[in-house]
Amino acid sequence: MDDLSGKVAVVTGGAAGIGRGIVGALLDEGCRVVIADIEAPVLAAAVAELAGRGDVRGVVTDVSDPVSVAALADQVYDELGACNVLWNNAGVTSGGGGNPWEQEPNDWRWCFGVNVFGTANGVLEFVPRMIAGDEPGVVVTTSSGDGGIAPVPYASVYASSKAAISCFTEALAHQFIAQKTKLRAAVFYPSGGLLETGLWEAQRNRPAELARVRPRPPAPGTTFAEFREALAAAGRPTDIVDLDELGRFAVQGVKDGRFVISHNLDAAGALLHARADAIADGQLPPSALEGLT
Ligand SMILES: NC(=O)c1ccc[n+]([C@@H]2O[C@H](COP(=O)([O-])OP(=O)(O)OC[C@H]3O[C@@H](n4cnc5c(N)ncnc54)[C@H](O)[C@@H]3O)[C@@H](O)[C@H]2O)c1
Question: Which residue's alpha carbon is nearest to atom 42 within ligand 1?
Answer without folding.
Answer: 91
